[in-house]
Amino acid sequence: MSTTPPNSDRRYVITFGCPDRTGIVARIASFLAEVGGWIVEAAYHTDLDTGWFFTRQVVRADSIPFDVEELRARFAGVARSLGSESDWQVADTGEPRRVVILVSREGHCLYDLLGRVASGELDVDLRAVIGNHESLGDITRAHGIPFHHVPFPAGDPAGKVAAFARLRALVDEHDPHAVVLARFMQILPPELCAAWAGRAINIHHSFLPSFVGARPYHQAHARGVKLVGATCHYVTAELDAGPIIEQDVIRVDHGDTVADMVRKGRDIEKVTLARGLRWHLENRVLVHGNRTVVF
Amino acid sequence: MSTTPPNSDRRYVITFGCPDRTGIVARIASFLAEVGGWIVEAAYHTDLDTGWFFTRQVVRADSIPFDVEELRARFAGVARSLGSESDWQVADTGEPRRVVILVSREGHCLYDLLGRVASGELDVDLRAVIGNHESLGDITRAHGIPFHHVPFPAGDPAGKVAAFARLRALVDEHDPHAVVLARFMQILPPELCAAWAGRAINIHHSFLPSFVGARPYHQAHARGVKLVGATCHYVTAELDAGPIIEQDVIRVDHGDTVADMVRKGRDIEKVTLARGLRWHLENRVLVHGNRTVVF
Amino acid sequence: MSTTPPNSDRRYVITFGCPDRTGIVARIASFLAEVGGWIVEAAYHTDLDTGWFFTRQVVRADSIPFDVEELRARFAGVARSLGSESDWQVADTGEPRRVVILVSREGHCLYDLLGRVASGELDVDLRAVIGNHESLGDITRAHGIPFHHVPFPAGDPAGKVAAFARLRALVDEHDPHAVVLARFMQILPPELCAAWAGRAINIHHSFLPSFVGARPYHQAHARGVKLVGATCHYVTAELDAGPIIEQDVIRVDHGDTVADMVRKGRDIEKVTLARGLRWHLENRVLVHGNRTVVF
Amino acid sequence: MSTTPPNSDRRYVITFGCPDRTGIVARIASFLAEVGGWIVEAAYHTDLDTGWFFTRQVVRADSIPFDVEELRARFAGVARSLGSESDWQVADTGEPRRVVILVSREGHCLYDLLGRVASGELDVDLRAVIGNHESLGDITRAHGIPFHHVPFPAGDPAGKVAAFARLRALVDEHDPHAVVLARFMQILPPELCAAWAGRAINIHHSFLPSFVGARPYHQAHARGVKLVGATCHYVTAELDAGPIIEQDVIRVDHGDTVADMVRKGRDIEKVTLARGLRWHLENRVLVHGNRTVVF
């Protein structure tokens, strides 16, 4: 599905954070200039509340006279000199991005992602789809993607623990860059939230922080809101409270029943999830506390 | 400011609600047809949860061979025959719509409304602006509108009670169709909420129900949302929980400070309030429980 | 795929147009009331430029004591009495809505529609997908829908004429309620526009009337617009000039290449087409000259 | 109106363009680092079509140990070394931004800008408002701003030439950073377009390139579009064809008359103009051919 791009399209993506001070941009830019790095995209941000500096730099791989491991080794020195031991990453767009998708019965987000993968728009190595129902198995397999059915027995705590263990094993064997909860209706236990921290991406069908938890469209209808929304966010142990990557809304009116809201909301959910996932996989999303910088 | 329109532009606006059943449209339409009423706008809605029927009909005044009082008297019979003693109204666009605006220090909503009134876009009889600060007095008076300064002494409960009494007197002498809280930063006491029920319109600077109460942009910034919003709603005794008339949102990103959010949000607040107020004054908003039908 | 709904969900949808005058609503509503018709949705509009009146009424089928043919026969008399011989329709939601989709290579609209059909969101009888390329055959067949490949030979006028004849035959055998040009990149000849008038629905990848014709995203990029759009419209003989059903836009900026615009635009194209198609199939769209009324 | 900000808020804003190559970011960032410059905002862009590089850097004034003239002198050397003699600027936020506004009769954009100036949101030195009608004189003077009435006699070419000469004199005496055409309904002659190139900002009441020229809402209504828009752009000799700074749209439907479109459109026009003007005055807009980079 995903292949190494021609050399001229291959990029190294550097993301980096450290306490703000003068000279950071110069230090990084000079390092890149010295090795001949051709910057094709660069973004900076300083969080004024915390005095934290963020940057994302995209460099043409063919402008660097050594491989990505060497780049990482050298950049580690730059980062250390700026006071950052570990808050940085050098990604290589030549490495396929491995993705696993979790679903329940609602298929609109899965369909949407499968279509984007099939057309090449979303250039990922989609390793597996895992469902707690079987209903989305056929469409997944029609795309040549493995589908695993992991039932979550209602009212059976031990069965659920076992199901989560199996889910985890099925996911972790792929060491995915992203675990996408594409309307997966089970709440991840804290240990999975921890294991997949910064990689598990959920789409919640409301404009968070409104309407946390179950049946948000019912809540929205009861409150009489005039717009409904969707929120793509990283999963954390607190339900629907993780760092927000992207949100969008769509207009509703008094003529819309809950079912109409559900239908209209789907169109927002799927594009919001797809945008958030793309940005995550392009290393555009830097998490800082409970907020995100999206470059 | 507001004058009786030429006869051909004058309209009678009938709003009506009753338990749904067959024949309602026929009953009302036949009544209008029999007296020669020329309907220029008509809207219907049935709330499926409660089985309540709503309609709004706009009739050319010059098509009705008698005056509005006679129309009201006759329509009362129609309403009664459909099981509705009091859930109806016949408004006359020839009667100026009296409005009083309450403000604090933030002027963007007031400026916006004054501009709409001055240009004739908002065809109202703006009777007074009342501020708990003096700062918006000059611009109000420059428009030829009386401004009253009613200070609300902080930390002085008795003083506040007196201030609200004075506020109420200043408002009630105009018997306004709308009391507009245009970023008025005092919380109305329950008795004022009751006295102005269905007429007091507030603009809250968040996408309710998110970020109720004070400093919603600070709350929004802390949560890291990607859109901020504004909500125009009727005031009820529960803070920021009244029936929503209109909402809108605007995109923000990680580069936006709280001050930026405040600035961007203002553009949404003022247009959302202006839309909501216009719809209210055109009798387009029918309240049903805690929700609105906006025809 | 599509089944007759339970009786209580079945609806008769009356659409009607005539020169405006008093008494139309009363005439139609009284007719419905006399036969016991339970109106669940009603909308009215008068075009002030042309003095034309439009209405759409939705009636519970189980409230009418006879069948839809009898309703049509009786309503014909009502229509005639209001001066309308043919500008009306009585649709029965119990009759499946037959749809044929035309595609080329770009699959995002087709994927989107297939997903909506599979989930039951779009309740249609999808009879066939016809492509001038083979590339979307597999996904179509995976959904159990017949796919026909009709090549359009470039630079071969006679071959094109034959291809359009074959296309027409493949479509017309289903007598579809809608022929959907889901990014079908061939320009329909006038005789097909005429044959499918009011049924052929196109999605154009620009905010019409900007950027008519080929490569609209390239045109948009060259002009430096800050939003790109999509337009769902009825096909007429003049290219991209038919009555507009729905439009939407998405923000772009200087960082977006033409390829980025193409990608972002797809998300707008597919939802705009899906909304327009739904409204068409629900008989919500009334064409009047080159404009539409969308109830 | 505008005062020098406290030292810690004062910024130097560097904008710069040159042919893309490696080492540009390093060169500029190193220059700034060497003089102790504290970068608070930085943005980069490379136009792939033309191979042109753009950057905007915002530096704390109090981090630079010399004045802005010295900074300009030194930066000139940096620019020259990167192949750019003149495609750069160093702005000082401590220098008030002089603005002149041109109006006709429609006041919504002027009202909006006056309100933003009065509240301090738009921190400019508004030197004058010039109208070809007298009608907006009172509101202008109520804000303490000089108003000049320059009539443009219809059907009198010589009179128009004289009026434009007077207009030019009234504008040029202020050497403004921005000449804002806030619904000024006269078409600037080519020599004024040239004289004010890159400083004359217009708001056009359509989503350009649709509906160039007169009465765009009438054109929009006739075409039956479902959204109307507004475009803020630099004025060039070709009518409504200059580089676009910002655009926005608002939804309309079949129920909206031309007058309704005009009214709804105003809300978009005024906020779109205000955004575009703010970005221009903050040196966020870099013009490149007929397109803009908006940092």
UniProtKB/TrEMBL annotation, chains A, B, C, D:
<keyword id="KW-0554">One-carbon metabolism</keyword>
<keyword id="KW-0658">Purine biosynthesis</keyword>
<dbReference type="GO" id="GO:0006189">
    <property type="term" value="P:'de novo' IMP biosynthetic process"/>
</dbReference>
<dbReference type="GO" id="GO:0006730">
    <property type="term" value="P:one-carbon metabolic process"/>
</dbReference>
<dbReference type="InterPro" id="IPR036477">
    <property type="entry name" value="Formyl_transf_N_sf"/>
</dbReference>
<dbReference type="InterPro" id="IPR002912">
    <property type="entry name" value="ACT_dom"/>
</dbReference>
<keyword id="KW-0378">Hydrolase</keyword>
<comment type="similarity">
    <text>Belongs to the PurU family.</text>
</comment>
<dbReference type="InterPro" id="IPR044074">
    <property type="entry name" value="PurU_ACT"/>
</dbReference>
<feature type="active site">
    <location>
        <position position="240"/>
    </location>
</feature>
<comment type="pathway">
    <text>Purine metabolism; IMP biosynthesis via de novo pathway; formate from 10-formyl-5,6,7,8-tetrahydrofolate: step 1/1.</text>
</comment>
<feature type="domain" description="ACT">
    <location>
        <begin position="13"/>
        <end position="89"/>
    </location>
</feature>
<protein>
    <recommendedName>
        <fullName>Formyltetrahydrofolate deformylase</fullName>
        <ecNumber>3.5.1.10</ecNumber>
    </recommendedName>
</protein>
<comment type="function">
    <text>Catalyzes the hydrolysis of 10-formyltetrahydrofolate (formyl-FH4) to formate and tetrahydrofolate (FH4).</text>
</comment>
<dbReference type="Pfam" id="PF00551">
    <property type="entry name" value="Formyl_trans_N"/>
</dbReference>
<dbReference type="InterPro" id="IPR002376">
    <property type="entry name" value="Formyl_transf_N"/>
</dbReference>
<dbReference type="InterPro" id="IPR041729">
    <property type="entry name" value="Formyl-FH4-Hydrolase_C"/>
</dbReference>
<dbReference type="GO" id="GO:0008864">
    <property type="term" value="F:formyltetrahydrofolate deformylase activity"/>
</dbReference>
<dbReference type="InterPro" id="IPR004810">
    <property type="entry name" value="PurU"/>
</dbReference>
<dbReference type="InterPro" id="IPR045865">
    <property type="entry name" value="ACT-like_dom_sf"/>
</dbReference>
